[in-house]
Specification:
Blueprint: H1 3-27, H2 50-66, H3 68-92, H4 112-115, H5 127-136, H6 140-155, H7 168-172, H8 184-191, H9 202-211, H10 213-222, H11 233-237, H12 243-259, E1 296-298, H13 305-320, H14 325-336, E2 337-341, H15 344-361, E3 373-376, H16 397-413, H17 417-420, H18 431-439, H19 453-471, E4 474-479, H20 489-498, H21 506-517, E5 518-529, H22 539-548, E6 550-556, E7 570-576, E8 584-588, H23 596-608, E9 615-618, H24 637-645, E10 647-648, E11 654-656, E12 659-660, H25 664-667, E13 668-670, H26 686-692, E14 696-700, E15 714-717, H27 719-726, E16 738-739, E17 749-753, E18 763-765, E19 770-771, E20 775-779, H28 783-793, H29 796-805, H30 813-817, E21 820-821, H31 826-848, H32 860-863, H33 870-902, E22 922-924, E23 940-942, H34 943-959, E24 991-993, H35 1004-1016, H36 1021-1029, H37 1040-1050, H38 1052-1059, E25 1066-1070, E26 1078-1082, H39 1090-1118, H40 1122-1153, H41 1164-1171
Parallel strand pairs: 1-2, 1-4, 2-3, 4-5, 6-8, 14-19, 22-23
Antiparallel strand pairs: 5-7, 6-7, 8-9, 10-21, 11-20, 12-16, 13-15, 14-15, 17-18, 17-20, 24-26, 25-26
Helix pairs in contact: 1-3, 1-8, 1-9, 2-3, 3-15, 5-6, 9-15, 12-13, 13-14, 13-15, 14-15, 18-19, 28-31, 31-33, 36-37, 39-40
């Protein structure tokens, strides 16, 4: 089946039909938001008949009631349903007349119904009209439309559930041009291969899903942060279940139910996805049943995928019991299959698909008058009670009163029924009495009421039928329920009242509800998201299942495999509706990445070979031994024992979430953005911070994967004990922030991020900061014990167990609390703590060698200076870094060995650590030297990185942020003191111009050369310049100084912004593409006169230099020739552009300079940068 072609057609067809139906409505003077007056003649000149006028009037009433867009949508999908239904029937030869409607017998777009028009005999066909149109010669389209509508109405006799009598207005809006090339019919025929329609009734389901795809996207996008309204629930939730998943669920519910009661049955040989235990032994039940006794329900039937396959399985059951296919088909429709849905469109297609399935087994079944038990759950809101008086005429008074009360009760139950669907709780009534009542009419009173009493009768019958279906018990309930956690107010209230413990998502409500539909020993099958197996919010559901039911089988589908159909990770499973000691059967496909076809093949492999390594068996009781009862069927006996003998983490440490500011942009900064005198990094407690009168403190916000130490990036405004955050409220006065667990603020901790899409990582957090709701933390008064837990949780055991407790990407506090801690003796505890302390030290060394650490001291090249060569300093530094990397890896592997043995997991884990998982730097000379084993490690560095970091350190010294006189951060706000810079003087105004020639005394390249002489001496100056330049981009012919100049001119600022997370501390003023005026200034040395100095001291100066250069170049041009002249002319052109650009830039700078703008560093880089965005480089 070509699903791509089906999808493309269905999506296009919806748009096309809506457009064509809208145009047709316009012909009759009906447009959105416009007055619709009476008319006698349509806009195309057609004189309206009385029937046309009546249809138009009903259409206007419909639009007034339901809305223009909704009505057009309804008409469009009505025609779409009929097009695809008739196409299926004609391809398979199921149309009673055996005459094709859309094509010739050769499948050409030459409707046989036209060529045979004068010979056709259809119910309701006006042959004289056919003859008139046929002989006219130019009314082919009008004839086709008439024959098509007549055929639809004729099919009402054999398929009333699909081809209801068309509303007059629907006929009025039949699209024009159906016989033209590129019409919906033409495209349907040409784009979807005829083979895809042949005996593959599933095509109807796929067409339905894809037709709704854009509606679904619109609903989800519009309501991304809103609750889904009743009318949008079908579009938001309907998913056509993958074929093999349906087969797995049915094979292991209906199929198993029959097989275990019929030991001699050959059915299992015909069920491809039937799973038997590893020992191959099926447990049989001593209970005799007949095929006609089986009842199967799909209460979210959609377009009927489950019943269609159930029909095939039931047919095999009937056949092995001696039934003929013809009679079996009737029994299956009459007695076995039941379906419910909230969407009438889906019901129609499910009904049609099921009837087509039956027709494939029985040629005469369409003439049997059989109505499958497929129903749309109704809304009773608009049912008019006035018709009650004409029913129950011949019943006794008591019976009539009882029947009426029962029906009134049902009407009350089904108010807004489509909002709730089959989770509605309904009560039995005397259904036969109610049917007698509604079928017993007083003919004499009918004229006293309006003409549509029959609609009332039909609606009441449907409610009675639906209620009866919802009060019956079934052997099998199999469905793909709606996935919906943003319920509208009414639905949310109903779920809270009736399914409080299972309310997290609508699918979990259905999981619970369907046990009520199921007989005590029956099976309930589903495809749902996998989250209910692990998340705390579904714990009550798991508890109910584990304690009262049993999981018979389950397939855990790999992450992302189902994304082509819906962006959700799914599982398929079958419950038995009673407790059982029989081990459940589980297939885990996590390791097999790929789409649903890949998953299918791996399932079949596991069924064929249960010892494949991903087929598991376990008793449901085992889930009770693990806190939270996650469905971790793959947990080994060793893991289960660890939980039994260990104590929970919550008994060892206090595990706490932290502050939720509700507005991080307002209250958080990266530590280097603000004036450092306002920050305090070592507060002992809240009182200590208050006494210091500081504003900013470290804020633990998770961050990228980092073990042992690090991720000290953020600070938070906690001035006056967080008074601003604690009083941060919305417009209605409701507190927005959540300053929770404040008693743990400023304490020493171990911390991790709740987002763990990679491997779990935990690190030590020094005292003095506040933890975030995402950067969760654990606390203990005894420091040593904290370090022991840090050592334990840094081993693969943590990741191994957490992936069981919660394999989603969000690791929660509760998951950490439930980790089993196995006690060890004092000697082992001390050994672990010693290794942990060393690892913290090593990781801190690594963190602090970067200038983004507030404990950065100086360039590591200066710390590793051996002689006067930068290269030897680099080699020494590389050796130090790589030795640290190796030692940390060695220590981690030692911890792994110890804890793997303690936890008895030698058969599941190995102590080896991949270089990719070590979270400190390792240096390679070049990118090509990086080993495959470490690729992907974000902490890998190259010689180029080291050189660029050294150049950044130079800029910091030139700006006065750092000094060669003393280590660490020297200036970041406050009063600038030049006396702190004696060895290498910081720039007097904190402005460094960057030009393509040496124009200024503080030329950046010459300043760097001076810096290099001071730090490494003059003896190896050129060698050092060459070494540095070799790691920078440039032409082969460029000198070292030219390469360095080019780096500062073009690339330094990009690197700086990357290192500082797009919140730079050195800002680059920039005139534009011609590099006329470019330079750096230090944010923390900014004052209101900064741009005045830039303008006067640098812009005017560089303009003069450009003009002088231009005069010299033009003089030389006059005396030159050949290539030299061309080169000079190019330079002259460049200078002219620079002069013009610098003049334009100077005007912008003057405007800012004249404004004397003050900034507040506390506002952060992002907000302050915006103020000067017209003269600064884009980030």
């Amino acid at each position: 089946m070509n699903k791509t072609a089906i999808k493309n057609f269905a999506i296009w067809a919806r748009r096309e039909l809506i457009e064509k139906v809208t145009k047709k409505a316009k012909i009759y003077g009906i447009e959105k938001d416009k007055e619709m007056k009476e008319m006698d003649t349509a806009h195309n000149g057609q004189v309206l008949t009385s029937d046309d006028k009546k249809a138009r009037r009903i259409l206007i009433e419909k639009i007034d009631k339901d809305g223009f867009d909704e009505t057009i949508e309804e008409v469009a999908y009505t025609w779409f349903n009929r097009f695809i239904a008739i196409r299926f029937m004609e391809v398979n030869g199921y149309i009673p007349s055996h005459i094709r409607v859309f094509t010739s017998e050769n499948n050409e777009f030459e409707p046989q119904i036209l060529s045979e028009a004068i010979h056709i005999d259809l119910p309701g066909l006006d042959k004289s009209k056919v003859l008139e149109l046929y002989n006219a010669g130019n009314k082919e389209e009008e004839l086709f439309n008439y024959l098509f509508i007549t055929q639809c109405n004729a099919l009402n006799e054999v398929l009333p559930g699909m081809f209801q009598k068309l509303n007059d207005y629907t006929e009025l809006l039949l699209p024009d041009g159906l016989l033209r090339d590129d019409s919906v019919i033409d495209v349907m025929i040409s784009e979807i291969p005829e083979e895809d329609w042949k005996e593959q009734v599933q095509i109807i389901g796929w067409l339905y899903q894809y037709y709704n795809e854009e509606i679904k996207a619109e609903v989800i996008n519009v309501t991304k942060r809103k609750n889904i309204e009743k009318k949008d629930i079908p579009a938001a939730t309907q998913i056509f279940t993958t074929d093999w998943v349906v087969r797995y669920i049915v094979d292991n519910s209906l199929g198993k139910y029959w097989i275990e009661r019929n030991p001699g049955s050959d059915l299992k040989e015909k069920l491809e996805f039937f799973i038997v235990p590893k020992n191959g032994e099926i447990e049989y039940i001593d209970e005799k049943i007949e095929p006609r006794d089986l009842r199967i329900l799909d209460n979210c039937v959609g377009s009927g995928h489950f019943p269609l396959y159930e029909f095939d399985v039931l047919m095999e059951i009937y056949k092995e019991c001696g039934y003929r296919e013809r009679e079996a088909a009737e029994y299956i429709l009459r007695e076995n299959l039941y379906g419910l849905d909230i969407d009438e469109r889906a019901r129609q297609l499910a009904y049609f698909s099921l009837m087509m399935k039956a027709r494939s087994y029985s040629r005469r079944i369409l003439n049997k008058g059989i109505e499958p038990h497929i129903y749309a759950i109704p809304d009773s809101n608009n049912i008019d009670r006035k018709y009650f008086e004409i029913f129950g005429n011949s019943l006794a008074v008591e019976e009539k009163e009882e029947a009426r009360k029962s029906i009134e009760k049902l009407l009350a139950t089904f108010k807004d029924g489509k909002n709730y669907g089959s989770i509605l709780k309904v009560e039995k009534v005397d259904f036969e009495l109610c049917r007698k009542y509604i079928e017993d009419m007083d003919g004499g009173q009918i004229d006293l009421f309006t003409y549509n009493f029959d609609e009332f009768q039909k609606e009441i019958k449907n409610i009675i039928d639906v209620t009866e279906v919802m009060t019956m018990k079934y052997d099998i309930v199999a469905t793909n329920p709606p996935y919906l956690n943003r319920m509208n107010g009414q639905l949310n209230e109903y779920v809270n009242k009736n399914y409080r413990d299972y309310k997290t998502d609508l699918f979990s409500v259905f999981m619970y509800r369907n046990f009520d539909f199921c007989k005590p020993n029956g099976y309930s099958g589903f495809m749902t998201p996998n989250v209910w197996m692990f998340l705390k919010s579904y714990e009550e559901l798991r508890k109910f299942i584990v304690e009262n039911k049993s999981i018979d089988s389950l397939i855990q589908i790999a992450k992302g495999a189902f994304f082509q159909e819906a962006t959700v990770d799914v599982i398929a499973f079958v419950f038995k509706n009673l407790t059982s000691n029989t081990p459940g059967k589980y297939i885990r496909l996590e390791e097999f990445k790929g789409g649903m076809e890949v998953q299918k093949e791996k399932v079949l492999e596991a069924i064929e070979n249960p010892h494949c390594g991903y087929f598991y068996e376990t008793n449901t009781d085992n889930f009770l031994k693990i806190p939270g009862m996650p469905i971790v069927y793959w947990a080994s006996d060793s893991i289960i024992k660890d939980f039994e003998v260990g104590i929970l983490m919550e008994e060892v440490l206090d595990v706490r979430q932290g502050l939720a500011t509700a507005d991080n942009n307002r209250f958080l900064r990266l530590w280097y953005e603000v004036e450092q005198e306002k920050s305090k990094f070592d507060s002992k407690n809240a009182e200590d911070l208050i006494e210091s009168k500081k504003k900013w403190v470290p804020y633990n916000k998770g961050g990228q994967r980092r073990q042992w130490y690090g991720n000290y990036d953020y600070i938070v405004n906690w001035e006056n004990d967080g008074v601003e955050i604690k009083n941060f409220k919305d417009s209605k006065g409701k507190l927005r922030s959540r300053p929770q667990n404040t008693g743990y603020y400023f304490k020493e901790a171990i911390t991790w991020s709740d987002i763990t899409s990679g491997k779990f990582a935990i690190r030590y957090r020094m005292p003095g900061g506040i933890h975030d709701v995402k950067g969760m933390s654990a606390f203990y008064t005894g420091k040593e014990n904290l370090k022991y837990i840090l050592g334990l949780m840094s081993t693969p055991i943590a990741n191994h167990i957490f992936k069981m407790l919660n394999p989603t990407i969000s690791l929660q506090v509760g998951d950490f609390k439930n980790f089993p801690v196995i006690k060890v003796d004092a000697l082992m505890e001390k050994k672990v703590m010693n290794v942990s302390n060393e690892n913290i030290y090593l990781s801190k060394q690594d963190w602090d060698m970067h200038e983004t650490s507030w404990d950065f001291q100086k360039s590591p090249l200066l710390s590793n200076k051996v002689d006067g060569r930068v290269e030897t300093a680099y080699e020494s530094y590389k050796g130090e870094v790589n030795e640290r990397f190796a030692k940390l890896k060695e220590n981690e592997e030692e911890l792994n060995r110890m804890f793997i043995e303690i936890y008895g997991l030698e058969d599941e884990l190995t102590p080896e650590v991949s270089d990719r998982d070590i979270t400190v730097a390792k240096i390679f000379d070049n990118k090509k030297d990086i080993d495959d084993e470490i690729k992907g490690n974000k902490y890998v560095m190259t010689r180029e990185d080291v050189v660029k970091n050294f150049l950044s350190y130079f800029i910091g010294c030139a700006m006065g942020r750092y000094s060669l006189d003393e280590e660490g951060l020297v200036f970041a706000g406050g009063e600038f003191d030049l006396s702190k810079y004696t060895i290498f003087k910081a720039d007097g105004d904190g402005i460094l111009p960057i030009t393509d020639q040496e124009y200024f005394e503080d030329d950046i390249v010459e300043l760097f050369v001076k810096f290099l002489k001071i730090t490494f001496g003059e003896e190896h100056l050129n060698e050092n310049l060459d070494f540095i330049a070799s790691e920078l981009k440039g032409k082969k012919s460029d000198s070292s100084r030219e390469r360095i100049r080019n780096y500062f001119l073009n690339d330094f600022y990009k690197d700086h912004c990357k290192i500082y997370q797009k919140l730079p501390i050195y800002w680059q003023y920039d005139s534009g593409n011609n590099d006329a005026c470019r330079g750096l200034f230090y944010l923390h040395r900014y004052d209101k006169d900064m741009f005045a100095r830039i303008r006067i001291k640098y812009i005017f100066e560089v303009q003069d230099r450009y003009k002088q250069d231009l005069v010299r170049v033009e003089d030389t041009i006059a005396k030159s020739s050949g290539s030299k002249k061309i080169e000079l002319q190019k330079r002259a052109d460049e200078l002219k552009k620079k002069i013009i650009e610098s003049q334009q830039f100077e005007e912008k700078v003057q405007h800012i300079a004249d404004s004397y703008i003050e900034i507040d560093l506390d506002d952060g880089v992002k907000e302050n940068y915006k103020i000067f965005k017209d003269v600064l480089a884009k980030i």
